[in-house]
Amino acid sequence: MSCSRQVLLVPLPLFNCTHPLYLPLVADNGIVVFSKTYCPYCTQAKKFLKEQGVWDKVVVVELDEREDGDQVQNYLHQLTKQRTVPNIFIAQQHVGGCSDLVGLDKKKLSELLAKI
Ligand SMILES: N[C@@H](CCC(=O)N[C@@H](CS)C(=O)NCC(=O)O)C(=O)O
Predict the structure, then answer these.
(1) Ligand 1 atom nearest to 85, measured from its CA
(2) Helix, strand or coil for residue 93?
(3) Domain spanning 22-114: which CATH class is it, in words?
């Protein structure tokens, strides 16, 4: 699966601010998926988002392709208490991983997607 919008080496404000929305990538984009290229759950989450017709709103950050991937993953862990990928945000809200995304109640998913 190709990623329509790959963001590589975007500077993220690591360790210097605890406010979630200070993560500008999350603040500025409808859907952000922190991912790893080889991760099957990430592939499944991307497929699900494509099926929802919102792929043009998705920014994917492949942590295994970034020099600062470990730092970003540690930061996400601090921020969300989740260490695994995919780590997904929709409309600035932390959704969780793939199982959380695909398990979202249809109404809740529609409400979130209506905000982006
Ligand atoms: N239940 C999780 C499973 C995610 C998961 O196990 N991801 C693996 C990669 S495939 C992971 O993050 N492993 C730790 C790591 O890569 O640092 C989900 O649905 O997202």
Answers:
(1) 12
(2) strand
(3) alpha beta
